[in-house]
Write a sequence for this structure.
């Protein structure tokens, strides 16, 4: 019986290639989305409690620390959203007779929809 | 262009305990692919060097190796495309090495038939009635997934397979999608157990490296995402219309 050589993947595998690194960045940016979800849950509990509790939460939102957190989370969440929009042509394959609709068209339509819905939400909140 | 050095992975389990790299100097030739250089080394310098190859034209999928850390078909990888003095040649990653550049491909070969990569019909029409015909549009839907040559470069690029070899893997799942999308096939439900198992599509985290390295532009990463959508829709239909979904 031949003695085979097994070569396990090292822990630093994600540093070997740009594609692997981008994958890790994409996955890690989802933690920012998760963290912001936590903030929203906090807002929900704060708004259902007494006035003092909500006032404390509101004061935190206006603090420099909160503004920095929001800015960082916004950048990471936008990057994460971009990766999902880029993925849509892989999942949504449309055909016009025997010609495939260009992946860029599908990703572009998704990007426009994302921007439009974001605009409507901003208009409802800020308008 | 100066002469080049091929730094080749050597593993000789019968005579040596550990693998090592051996350098072979080659005279630069503009029209040489890496496989030509390896054959030259075997014929002129070291007949003990072992590697697989067959067709020399990117069809058989035998000569896949790591070239400077990237999975490549060595029969279509030109030496001239590497401006480094040394080109590093290793066996495909994530597979056990039998000897030198030869890997054990049993795992892949065992997984290949598990997705029933053939046309499945509920009932076969009488051959006298003629062929199962397809329009060019119907062929176009699955054609790119049918171009796979089983070279296993995608497995070598996939870190999920590298970390967990129970993963069914890119090429085999792309083959499942190839038959699911074929208008003559009726076997999507029959393939569900293997394709939707934990080791199947749901283990893919969409790194996308498989698609990048595929020499035939098969796009296994895309095939797997399409499988996720179609089987998720099948599941949802089964929940909403439990009777209608059953055969």
């Amino acid at each position: 019986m031949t003695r085979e050589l097994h070569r396990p993947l090292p822990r630093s595998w994600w540093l070997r290639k740009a594609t692997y690194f981008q994958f890790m960045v994409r996955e890690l940016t989802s933690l920012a989305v998760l963290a912001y979800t936590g903030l929203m849950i906090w807002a929900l509990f704060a708004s259902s409690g007494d006035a003092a509790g909500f006032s404390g939460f509101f004061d935190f939102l206006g603090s420099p620390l909160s503004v920095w957190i929001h800015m960082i989370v916004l950048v990471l969440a936008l990057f994460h959203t971009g990766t999902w929009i880029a993925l849509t042509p892989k999942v949504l394959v449309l055909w016009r007779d025997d010609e495939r609709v260009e992946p860029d068209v599908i990703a572009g339509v998704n990007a426009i929809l994302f921007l439009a819905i974001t605009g409507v939400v901003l208009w409802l909140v800020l308008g | 262009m100066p002469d080049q050095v091929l730094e080749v992975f050597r593993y000789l389990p019968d005579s040596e305990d550990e693998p090592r790299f051996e350098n072979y100097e080659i005279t630069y030739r503009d029209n040489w692919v890496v496989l030509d250089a390896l054959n030259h080394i075997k014929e002129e310098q070291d007949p003990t060097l072992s590697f697989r190859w067959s067709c020399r034209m990117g069809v058989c999928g035998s000569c896949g190796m790591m070239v400077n850390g990237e999975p490549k078909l060595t029969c279509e990888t030109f030496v001239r495309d590497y401006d480094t003095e040394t080109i590093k040649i290793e066996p495909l990653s994530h597979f056990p090495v039998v000897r030198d550049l030869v890997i054990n491909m049993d795992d892949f070969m065992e997984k290949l038939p598990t997705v029933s990569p053939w046309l499945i019909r509920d009932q076969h029409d009488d051959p006298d009635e003629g062929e199962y015909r397809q329009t060019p549009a119907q062929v176009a839907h699955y054609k790119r997934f049918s171009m796979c040559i089983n070279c296993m470069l995608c497995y070598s690029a996939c870190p999920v397979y590298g970390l967990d070899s129970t993963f069914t893997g890119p090429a085999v799942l792309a083959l499942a999608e190839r038959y699911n999308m074929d208008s003559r096939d009726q076997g999507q439900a029959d393939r569900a157990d293997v394709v939707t198992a934990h080791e199947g599509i749901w283990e893919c985290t969409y790194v996308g490296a498989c698609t990048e390295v595929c020499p035939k532009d098969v796009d296994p990463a895309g095939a797997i995402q399409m499988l996720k959508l179609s089987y998720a829709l099948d599941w949802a239909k089964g929940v909403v219309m439990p009777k209608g979904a059953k055969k």
Notes: Chain B has two domains: 4-103, 106-245.
